Batch of 2 targets.
Target 1
Amino acid sequence: MTELKNDSSKLINVGFSLHKQGKLEDAENAYKEALEVDSENAEIYNLLGVLKLQQNDVISALYWAEKAVEMMDNEYFYENLFQVYIRAKLYKQIVKRENNIIEKFPNNFSLLFNLALAYKNLKDTKKAINYYDKALKVNPASYDGWFNLAHLYSIEGEVKNAVSALKICQKLRPKDKDTEYFLSLALMQLKDYDKGLKLFENRISRETAIALQNKSYPNKASIDRLWKGENIKDKTLLVYYEAGFGDTIMFARYLPLVANRCKKLILSCQKSLTPLFKLNPLGVDEIIDSYIPEQNIEFDVHAPLLSLPYLLKLKGERVFAYPEGYLKADENLAKEYKEKYFNNDKIKVGIKWQGNTYFDMDRVIPSEEFIPLMQVENTQYYSFQTFEGSEDISKLKNIIDIGKDLINFSQTAAALANLDLVICNDTSLAHLAGAMGIPCWIVLPYEVNWRWHSYLSKCDWYDSVKLFRQHKIGDWKGVFEDILNEMV
């Protein structure tokens, strides 16, 4: 028996040496030979699990890693098994091992961290916070631990704790752009715009921002031409969008302020917003809505739209300049829509349930959640859903589909001008309604965007907007019950 074990040990060593050299097929053969000699050796099963995961054969890795743990309660084996579970997104399998881990390996950072990660992905934020906290007591120098903890605190509305966690991240990784960017969001959620807006400038150096800048104007982002808030009364300023429609509408409030600072203001915006901004120039002298070679644009300095409040040095409540009514609808077009769609004596309610799903699915509301609201007497509902998601209107009855006729935001504004109320998800329609001073109820997911701050109901950006937030993750029914109670 001793000789056999010695043979298996030699084969394991050979396999391990080949494994380290990256000769995975040869290493696998050596491990399996060792297994033929010593089939009860849990280490061989574990090594095969590690190897198979490296080969992206998750199913085989799962078999070998689980076999190793079944044979021996070894914390290193558990660490490897959890890596397989994470790769396979089998987070519930990690949670099933929770009691055993806590009982036998209560001070293993990796296992505690991955328990937290599992609960985070299962949307159980409170348990995730608990395990990140335990893991950080074992290893307080873990950047990833503090960073993930900050995100969870933010989800739970414990934004001050999120700021504290991100400040620790700052110490662990000084001048890290991502850390400072997410710290800016947390500070702004707390309405600390004096500190938050400065750190928010770190977004310009993030990969997504650079990609957009390079796509739009490859040389525009040269640092020597970036406006830094200096006197430009004799200069032409190019301001360009950098995010979604809602962000462009929201930050357009600052255009009149910056127009007073420069000789000429050029705005580069999304094409579907152009008719709206031509109707509401907001001090803009020229609008660009299609690609023009940079050498054909005459400007002295440039600035991203979302940098304007920082560059204007707005402090305190001045950040919320122009709280409502800075955008108007085309009166003639609004009358046309009234005759076509809104010529009735009912309370007219516009709804939308989905925006751009490329970045965020949590803000998408199942269209059928609106059905109870439609039972309220003397109401007529209008769908403002356009493009993606518009097919879900089939789940609703007695609703007028105006979204199919809306091509740009000027048309949308004209339609909105005929409404008594808008009820929608966190999307560009909400910003447009708020900017026009039209009553709007925004239905928010449990994890709210920084701009809606940390309290419910009140909206600082638009006086006509009221906020409704989920009581727990994924619970649309509860928040729509709140809305129904508000309506009846």
Target 2
Amino acid sequence: MHTINTRIILFSVIGVVVLIFLLILSGVIPGLKSNNPKTEGPSGTINMWVIQDRQSAYEAAIKKFTDVYPGIRVSFKTFPNETTYRNALLEGFATNQGPDIFLVDNASVLRDANKIEPLPKQKMSLLQLQNFFPRVVERDFVSKDGRIFGIPLSIDTLVMIYNKDIFDTEQIAEIPKTWEEFNAIVPKITKIEGGTRITRAGAAIGGSEKNIERASDLLQLIMMQSGVSMMKASPFSASFSPSGEDALRFYVGFSNAKNSVYTWNSIMPSAIDSFAEGKTAILFDYASSLDTIRNKNQWIHAGIAPVPYPAQTKCQNEYECRTAYARYYGYTVSKQSELKSVAWDLVLFMTTQSDTAGDYMTKTKKPPALRFLIGQTSQDPELGVQAAQALIAKSWQQPDRDAVSSLFSEAIDLVISGKKDVSSALRQTQDGVNQLIKEKGL
């Protein structure tokens, strides 16, 4: 009798469990059936657009990201140059077919701010950004109200590239650290025939962008080293005088045949070509130009050194003196993205973690942005110089980098040709920048 009762109870319990299970599946029991299927997080595709980089440079970051977000696929597109990239970006945003993650020029954040979804504050504080990156990142990508508009993986700075063979032949034992030391060695390594014909330039400096590819950046660097603020905050406008006049006068002095430092003129070939041919001893450019130089001349012995700076006595402090010029990109998220929060997580995976950022640095040979990695590269003969300069780098917000560069290049030509004096040429440049600001509505 006891056994029969036990079986009845057992079958009853099983029947009740089965009934409840069927009622749950059918939704008869309220609240137990969800209208949405259970998922393991967000799903979809994040489109990322970059310039020149291969997808393999991001593999470590993407893997860590997709381990956390298995429902997200990362689609990658690279462009051969900035012009092609910029045109595609403008078309993409106009048709709502743009990327979720894209690159923004460090000097053009104001121009592109209306396309950017700022980083949610709960994902990274301003203090964390300051601890992760050099000061230039905060200056370039953080708004006055503390919103973060982009985060870099790499910070490129203008460097001094020199021909080791020429330096050794002319017994130049020490690389010039200051502009005063630079002025002292230029006459020693410059070769001139007939009073004006330059057969070997000591340095590609003093001319416009017609034959010096980074003439505008170099002039802006010298201006900032001279204490020029470049922009006023209120009202937002260009401000280049009076110290800017001294900087422009110093720069064009290298193209004046009457000066002891005469080393360049308007009939010289391209600065990069001339350096690659061994006809120019010093070139101011970004380290990425070394690939171009070595492709032109695989036998050249080129070294990299920090850009010179004014003597300490002329600066308010050492940081102001030893300014480097920064030109780089930050990764940011589009306002049009349907996966904004998750896209920012991918940016953080790429930029703030030393293992993934380090993998990118190793594969691309680009100077790092993370302070931790900057410290790790101090002994590298090429990356070390660039990385260290990131700590003293500066830039300024421009309404249109290409247009601004053209204005500075024109100013150089106007002074060299004698069509305008230094003051008038720089004032024309300042007025031109302010007109661009007005046109862009900044």
